[in-house]
Prior knowledge:
By secondary structure, the chain is α/β, with parallel strands linked by helices. The chain folds into 3 domains: 4-136 and 305-340, Rossmann fold; 142-301, Dihydrodipicolinate Reductase, domain 2 (2-Layer Sandwich), CATH 3.30.360; 349-435, 2-Layer Sandwich (Alpha-Beta Plaits). Helices cover 36% and strands 26% of the residues. It is built from 15 helices and 17 strands. The protein has helices at residues 14-25, 27-34, 65-69, 87-96, 106-123, 139-146, 161-173, 177-186, 195-198, 201-215, 234-242, 305-324, 368-378, 409-420, 438-441, and strands at residues 4-10, 37-44, 61-62, 74-79, 100-103, 127-128, 152-158, 225-226, 245-255, 261-271, 283-290, 294-301, 353-363, 383-388, 397-404, 407-408, 425-434. Strands 7, 8, 9, 10, 11, 12, 13, 14, 15, 16 and 17 form an 11-stranded mixed beta sheet that branches. Helix 1 (14-25) packs across helix 12. It is elongated.
Amino acid sequence: MKDxxxxxxxxxxxxxxxxxxxxxxxxxxxxxxxxxxxxxKWICDKDITSDRGFQVPEGIxxxxxxxxxxxxELDILVELIGGIEPAKTFILQAIEKGKHVVTANKALLATxxxxxxxxxxxxxxxxxxxxxxxxxxxxxxxxxxxxxxxxVSTVLGIMxxxxxxxxxxxxxxxxxxxxxxxxxxxxxxxxADPTYDxxxxxxxxxxxIMSTLAFGQRIGLDDIYxxxxxxxxxxxxxxxxxLGYSIKLLAIGKKNSHESVDVRIHPTxxxxxxxxxxxxxxxxxVYFVGDSVGKVMLYGMGAGQMPTGSAxxxxxxxxxxxxxxxxxxxxxxxxxxxxxxxxxxxxxxxxICCKYYFRFTVMDKPGVLSRISGILxxxxxxxxxxxxxxxASKASSVPIVMLTHEAQEGRxxxxxxxxxxxxxILDETMIIRIEDMKALEES
Length: 443
Ligand code: HSE
């Protein structure tokens, strides 16, 4: 049995520091759990002088990636620099040299993952990526191992803590999006450039990974319909609350009976009493429906130094256990052999059917409501209820909120284009999809 498994980290930022700390501080626990010594042999970063708040053993810090690549004793390269390059090159080089890889890089996996998984599969090395989705929540391991007996029909998730934090504060305190975002940035919860988080792109990276695993299809970022939360107003939140819903940036992955998959991310109105509605603040949750197990929800910290470090070290331990027993590749990276993963069969978003919330901004004058309902009727969109509060003064606008019965997205978009071209419409109509969850929870 191999008595030491050597690990090198590239990227000594927040997650790199958390990972290093766990490897150093939990050495004896990890030895018990792997029956070997998990040894942090290298840490590589451009900055090796800043204080990370803990003692780093002498001689392991380097600015030269080749020291890791050319070290024949290095078993596992942990990529924590993020972004596409040079992360992709480093990962492919490590694989080529026969090293196992662990990464948290969801943007890279969602855009170039199949190239990486194919290279690893050919070379017979492992790629661990638990930390790429849900931070410390073991949702990838759950899919690959705990739920392996199931046909998983649904993956739902609140997978971005920043967006969830903003929506939670907007809901609890009636605040505007821009106001909460600014405060979140001041407190360091949101990035200086929050685009990926608030426009759903970070969530789309994560859904691409989860839906590939769950459905056995090569689903990439471009396959996912994505809308963010930046247009949500306190008015929408207060209407949603009054109507019995909460608004969440929901990642939806649903496999239909014809094996086509519906993969989308958008603000979604979900019943206030659903478990996912209780996921507040910076917390994440991933919710699965499997044909044997039924519904399963995992909840926890989706980001942060130590929770993400926990997921990285879990992957290192998996690989170390395999190395010591000479059974590398026991659990395939994508839950089944790489060449058995099929092409994506994406259901176009125009063909989805759900209920809708529309908020029209209109001039308050006779005939407006009948014109709107006439256009909706032409597209076979049936109205469930209408709410108009108060009366506008002559010059100002008034919001009209309508909830529909189930309608087809393509027809909804056509109708709204027509409605928004009317002269009594004073602003772009707000549309939020409503999921009562029953259809999504069918296995
Ligand atoms: N930026 C992400 C979030 C965390 O706000 O949840 C890293 O995936």
